[in-house]
Design a protein that fits this description.
Number of domains: 2
CATH superfamily of the largest domain: endopeptidase domain like (from Nostoc punctiforme)
Distance between the termini: 56 Å
Largest sheet: 6 strands, antiparallel
Oligomer: single chain
CATH architecture of the largest domain: Alpha-Beta Complex
Number of helices: 8
Length: 213
C-alpha cells in the first residue's frame, strides 16, 4: 500500500516536472533576439567623437536579424554630406559602411519577449512611415557630451534613438534617460551579449564559417 502511494506521488512529481519543463521550453521558443551594433568608421565626425571620448565606437544601430539585413539608426542619408542626416535603414555593404570597409564593430545580442518584439516592430514602423519628419539631433549630441540632456521633438542621435525605441517597447536596459545614452552605455551594458567583434565587412563571412563548422 505504501509502495503504491509512493509510486503515485513519484509519478505525479514527474508529471509536474515535465509540464514545468515544457512550459519553460515554450516560453523560450517565444523569446526573440534583436541585435545592437556599435561601429567606428573613418569619417571625420566619427574620428572626432573617438578623439573626444576615447571610446572604441562612435555609432549605434539596432537590427532585427543576426545577419544585419534589417538595421536602423540615425545617421547621414548619403555619403558626402554629414549634415543631411536622419532616420535611415543601414546596409553594411553599401553607403558609408561600403565606402569605409575598415569599419570596426561590436555586435550585441539581446533576448526579449515576443510582446516586446511586436511593440518594437510597431515603434520602428512609426519611424519608417514618417521618416521625412525626423532629423538628426546635433544639439543633443553636444549636450550628451557635456552631460546636459537635450530633447528635441522628432530629433535623435544614434544611441539616443536606440535607447528611445527600446524604452518605448518596454525594454528597460539602461538606468538613465534615453536622451543621455551614449555608445559607451551600450558597450558596458551587462544585459547585452557580444557575439562578434572585428571588421563589419567581414561579419557575414565569419558568421557563415562558424555556422558551417
Amino acid at each position: 500500500m505504501l509502495s503504491d502511494i509512493n509510486k503515485v506521488m513519484y509519478n505525479g512529481y514527474n508529471t509536474m516536472k515535465n509540464l514545468k519543463t515544457k512550459k519553460n521550453l515554450n516560453k523560450a521558443a517565444r523569446n526573440k533576439n534583436i541585435y545592437i551594433v556599435l561601429t567606428q568608421t573613418q569619417t571625420y565626425p566619427a574620428r572626432m567623437i573617438h578623439l573626444y571620448t576615447s571610446e572604441p565606437y562612435a555609432h549605434a544601430s539596432i537590427a532585427f536579424d543576426e545577419d544585419l539585413e534589417e538595421m536602423y539608426s540615425f545617421a547621414r542619408r548619403g555619403i558626402r554630406n554629414p549634415f543631411n542626416a536622419g532616420f535611415v535603414e543601414e546596409d553594411i555593404n553599401n553607403g558609408i559602411f561600403g565606402k569605409y570597409t575598415s569599419t570596426t564593430c561590436n555586435v550585441y545580442q539581446l533576448k526579449i519577449t515576443e510582446k516586446q518584439y511586436i511593440r518594437l516592430r510597431e515603434e520602428i514602423s512609426i519611424f519608417k512611415n514618417n521618416k521625412d519628419d525626423y532629423s538628426y539631433n546635433f544639439l543633443g549630441l553636444l549636450g550628451a557630451a557635456l552631460n546636459i540632456p537635450i530633447q528635441k521633438k522628432q530629433r535623435y542621435f544614434c544611441s539616443q534613438f536606440v535607447a528611445y525605441i527600446l524604452e518605448r517597447s518596454d525594454i528597460k536596459i539602461f538606468n538613465k534617460s534615453y536622451t543621455m545614452v551614449k555608445p559607451r552605455d551600450i558597450r558596458l551594458n551587462p544585459r547585452l551579449k557580444s557575439i562578434y567583434r572585428g571588421r563589419l565587412s567581414e561579419y557575414r563571412l565569419i558568421k557563415q564559417k562558424e555556422l558551417y563548422i
